[in-house]
Amino acid sequence: MPAPARPTTTLTPLPAGAALPTQALNPSLFANPAVLGGLALALTVAIWAGFFISLRAGARAHLAPAELALIRFLPAGLVFAPVLWRRRERFAALPLRLWLSIVAGAGLPYFLVAGTGMRHAPVVDGSTLIPGTIPLFVALLAAAAQGRQALSRWPALLMIGSGVATLLAWHHGEGELAQGYALFLLGSLMWANYTLALRAAKLAPVEAAALISCVSLLLLAPWLIWHPPLGLLALPASQFWLHLGLQGLGVGLVSTLSYSYAIARLGAQRAATGGALAPVLAALLAMPVFGEFPDSASVIGMVLIIAGVIWSQR
Fold first, then answer.
1. How far is CA 209 from each of CA 82, 103, 143, 225, rounded to the nearest angstrom?
2. How crowded is residue 183: how many other Cβ atoms within 10 Å of its Cβ?
3. Is 88 exposed, middle or buried (0-12, 13-18, 19+ CB in 10 A)?
4. For residues 87 and 77, what is the distance between their CA atoms, to the nearest angstrom?
5. How far is 231 from 62, CA to CA, in rounded Å?
6. Is 132 within 8 Å of 305 (Cβ atoms)?
């Protein structure tokens, strides 16, 4: 029995400039967890790079780090205050040591250290040294508490250390840069201690953000009583909204959730590896914004540190 003839279909070409029919689009593309995770990670990296750009812009505008901290912690503190109240029993059960490590390592003390360091060194060095040396300090702190097994990835850690040594050796005679580097490394050590404390406390990302933002805002209150933020009020409107968008909304609110989402969709290793690109983006942004072009030592140090970070995540 012969097969029935198939009906013919005439394809009519679309006129120039006409939009494709909605059936031609693939709506499942943005439902793919990997795609959504990649977009969340890209947003996080952009915010992290903008964090260092904002710190440097505040330093160049002679804005006190505490005034910039007000922008960083005020919106997040107000938004997360209900979380702090609802989970007050959870927070009250935390040991004081974990409280201090979490708030100091990612809250106001860390922000003041990083902001002051950015007054003495360019964006590329700060954005490389602070996040880039965190795996090294985490391993050293863990080794001090748990033993040498925490140093099992020593080749990657050695590569990170060589990048730091390159920067220090090249600029050892420059006092202002050396001061900035010392503050960046201190900030990285504080963040590494915060990382271990957060792991021990087992706080959810929203809980950690609430604790950090609200307590930091309380710590800022006495300073604001004696030092009104006159420099902040004198900023041009464009700079004020830039800092508010990057620090208050981006770092304080969006990146906390976007990075957690990226980890959930991509896994911790891929998210951490992608986050290592933040120094590169920050360095590229600093060129047109501030006219800061990295020298050979900064480029070599950045390459070694980022390569070590990526290697340590594998």
1. 12, 10, 27, 25
2. 23
3. exposed
4. 15
5. 8
6. yes
Instruction: Fill in the amino acid letter for 173.
Output: G
Structure tokens at 122: 């360019």
Residue 27 corresponds to which tokens in the numbers above? Answer: 């709506």
C-alpha dihedral sign at 278, 279, 280, 286: positive
Tokens of 157: 């850690």
The whole-model pTM stands at: 0.84
Tokens 């590569």: give the residue.
159
- The pLDDT tens digits of the residues spanning 95-137 come to 999 999 999 999 999 999 999 999 999 999 999 999 999 888 9
How many other β-carbons are positioned within 10 Å of the β-carbon of residue 38? 17
Whole-angstrom distance, CA of residue 264 vs CA of residue 271: 9
Residue 294 to residue 29: CA distance in whole angstroms: 38
Whether the Cβ atoms of residue 137 and residue 189 lie closer than 8 Å to each other? yes
**Total Cβ atoms within 10 A of residue 84:** 18
